[in-house]
Design goal:
The complex is a heterodimer of chains A (417) and B (214).
Chain A (H helix, E strand, L loop, with lengths): L1 H20 L10 E12 L2 E4 L3 E5 L4 E4 L19 E11 L2 E11 L4 E2 L8 E2 L4 E8 L1 H5 L3 H6 L9 H16 L5 E7 L1 E9 L2 E9 L2 E6 L2 E7 L8 E3 L4 H22 L8 H18 L1 H4 L3 E12 L2 E11 L12 E10 L36 E2 L2 E4 L1 H27 L1
Antiparallel strand pairs in A: 1-2, 1-3, 1-18, 3-4, 5-6, 6-11, 7-8, 9-10, 10-13, 11-12, 13-14, 15-16, 16-17, 17-18
Helix pairs in contact in A: 4-5, 5-6
Chain B lengths: L1 H29 L13 H4 L17 E4 L4 E8 L6 E2 L8 E4 L12 E4 L2 E4 L15 E6 L2 E14 H6 L1 H5 L8 E10 L2 E12 H10 L1
The chains are: A alpha+beta (417), B alpha+beta (214).
Chain lengths: 417, 214
């Protein structure tokens, strides 16, 4: 919600600036506008990004502000994305008297080429680019309280348990150590969003080339999800993180079993059944504590679109947020990443003396055809009231005069009698 | 003598006429102001060829007639224009409604159609009762044999200052839904109208769609 408000605020501000840039909005209405932003990144609440390109047109020509191909260094000192090509371009044109808006924005790997904004791609693939989204400290989640994790073993009621606690604690630490290096990364060749708008219509689409998310756990790389090339609007990505949980649990279980084998080698009276009970108890504990991972710790929306008006659209190719639920797992501040933000529209028709109505119907007293260029764009006062109607005003005046004349005549008549 | 007799008869006739005139004047001033137009039937219904929105005519001629059956309002339309000071005034004839000539033609899928008619404190005027129209009421605009039908979706009363503040939202032509906006005055205080009644109506197709969604 906060993010949406921020974007809404930014949109309002940019719209206001665009209107200010055109001078008087009343005298020169904007008939086409578009905005583009390649990347917006918030790490730990500190927002940054590639800035914005804004194009407007009031019928007298296009005005464009902002840098279309900013260097990656504009993102500042951050570890998320340190290589690639940023492209953000917008166009606001008038075609046959009608405003047409277009925008394109996104990120590609080194060596990518860029094209002019229009109704086709503006970025073409270069080298794959990697994104380091987060490092997850799973050990912290699993062993928040080792004593409590092991306390359940007391319920087993075996006198040997006291001798086992020490070795088991060591086993847990060893088994979970590799999980401390769990990383959440992404890679792609191109991620871009583009839009077009004209009166009554607006469309947007996304292109994601060779895009996937990967988790590296315990030295293994686990693909989390491959992203679709042309996602439908507002596609939610379901990250299959239960694979990660299974991998982690397997690692713990294997380590526990081998440790127990060694620890119990010199002990008598420990049955296989008891060993299994011990392992199952601890594995269940580990699984419960990894639940936040199995749930989606990422909120990813592809080709996110909203339509403030029929001829306006705002869209984002990839919107990724590390959910607050992952706060205890993330080794570092939370990430909110948006790649390929574009907005097109609203649009309008260029107002001229000849349009929309310079015809022959203007025979009324208020007809001022041909003067539209000098007139305000919209009325600011509607003066549609009067004390009495104009027609009856005249009649009432005549009646009053007649009445007065009649009274005078009547008095004279009476006086004359 | 003849002259005196003639003058006496003429004076008596004048006195009688004056009495009638006074009665008529009193009746005119005392009776509540009525509807701007008589509650004539909607003859355009017989001529309608379609109720679907139509594209704007390129010649920019005004539509013919505005009809609000629930108010008994039937009024011809004339084109009007904003003054350089931004004032939009209906035609002088209170029975005639003004169509802002730079607004959309009825049925256009872009912009919005803006019409305004007078409210008279005393005497008939086309939009005396506009503020009493109910949401969902039918409004028809006759346009050269085509009837564009709307349903009222909102009735608001804004002060003149608020109208000025929201003028762009209310009347600008960069909207895309082709709604009808009807405006008149209200809040008569000390010789001035201090507010406007603004009625919004959507083409029937869109109104039905909105209702289904709701």
């Amino acid at each position: 919600m906060k993010k949406n408000l921020a974007r809404l605020g930014a949109l309002s501000a940019s719209t206001t600036l665009a209107l200010m840039a055109t001078g008087s909005a009343w005298a020169a209405p904007v008939v086409a506008r578009a905005d583009a932003n390649a990347i917006t990144l918030s790490i730990g609440g500190n927002a940054g990004g590639s800035g914005q390109v804004t194009a407007t047109n009031d019928g007298t020509g296009e005005r464009k502000e902002g840098e279309t191909t900013p260097p990656i260094s504009v993102l500042g000192n951050q570890d998320l994305l340190n290589a690639g090509v940023l492209q953000q371009d917008a166009a606001a044109q008038v075609q046959d008297g009608v405003g047409v808006s277009a925008a394109c924005a996104g990120v590609a790997g080194e060596g990518a080429s860029v094209a002019e904004v229009g109704d086709s791609n503006c970025l073409f693939p270069g080298q794959p680019v990697g994104v380091t989204i987060a490092n997850l400290d799973l050990t912290g989640a699993v062993l928040v309280n080792p004593e409590s994790a092991l306390a359940d073993l007391n319920a087993i009621g075996d006198p040997l348990m006291e001798q086992l606690v020490g070795p088991l604690t060591a086993a847990l630490s060893e088994g979970l150590a590799p999980l401390g290096e769990t990383g959440l990364v992404g890679s792609f060749s191109v991620i871009e969003e583009r839009c077009v708008a004209s009166p009554g219509t607006a469309q947007a689409s996304a292109d994601l080339v060779d895009a996937q998310l990967t988790l590296s756990v315990a030295g293994e790389s686990v693909p989390v999800v491959n992203l679709p090339v042309h996602p439908e609007p507002n596609t939610k990505v379901v990250t299959d993180l239960d694979q990660v949980v299974n991998l982690a649990v397997d690692a713990v279980e294997e380590d526990l079993r081998s440790t127990l084998e060694g620890a119990l080698a010199d002990l008598t009276g420990v049955t296989d059944e008891l060993q299994t009970q011990i392992v199952d108890t601890l594995v269940a504990e580990v699984s419960d504590n990894l639940a936040p991972v199995e749930e989606n710790i990422l909120d990813i929306t592809l080709n996110a679109q909203s339509r403030p008006a029929p001829d306006a659209i705002a869209a984002t190719a990839l919107d990724l947020e590390l959910l607050p639920a992952a706060a205890e797992l993330a080794d570092g501040p939370l990430v909110d990443l948006q790649i390929g933000n574009v907005e097109c529209g609203p649009t309008g028709v260029v107002q001229t003396a000849a349009t929309p109505s310079s015809g022959n119907g203007g025979d009324g007293g208020n007809d001022r055809a041909g003067a539209a260029d000098d007139l305000p764009e919209v009325p600011t006062v509607v003066d549609a009231g009067a004390g009495v109607s104009s027609g009856p005003d005249v009649a009432a005046g005549v009646l009053v005069l007649a009445g007065v004349a009649g009274l005078v005549g009547y008095r004279r008549l009476v006086a004359g009698r | 003598m003849t002259l005196r007799v003639d003058r006496g008869r003429r004076t008596a006739w004048l006195a009688g006429a004056a009495a009638l005139a006074l009665v008529a004047l009193v009746a005119f001033l005392v009776l509540p102001s009525g509807q701007g137009s008589t509650a004539a039937p909607d003859p355009g219904i017989t001529e309608q060829s379609t109720l679907r929105p139509v594209e704007p005519r390129p010649d920019g001629r005004p539509p013919n007639r505005l009809v609000v059956p629930s108010l008994g309002l039937t009024a011809p339309l004339e084109p009007i224009e904003v003054t350089p000071a931004g004032v939009l005034t209906p035609p002088d004839d209170g029975d005639v409604v003004g169509w802002w000539r730079r607004s959309a033609q009825p049925g256009a899928r872009q912009g919005q159609t803006v019409v305004t008619g007078h409210t008279f404190r005393s005497g008939p005027a086309a939009m005396n009762e506009l503020g009493t129209v109910d949401e969902g009421s039918v409004v028809r605009v006759h346009d050269d044999g085509v009837v564009v039908e709307y349903r009222v979706t909102g009735v608001v009363k804004y002060s003149v200052d608020k109208v000025a503040d929201k003028a762009y939202d209310l009347f600008a032509q960069d909207r895309g839904d082709g709604r009808l906006v009807m405006v008149t005055c209200t809040d008569y205080v000390d010789g001035d109208y201090r507010s406007n009644v603004i009625v919004f109506a959507e083409p029937v197709g869109q109104a039905e769609k909105a209702r289904r969604v709701a």
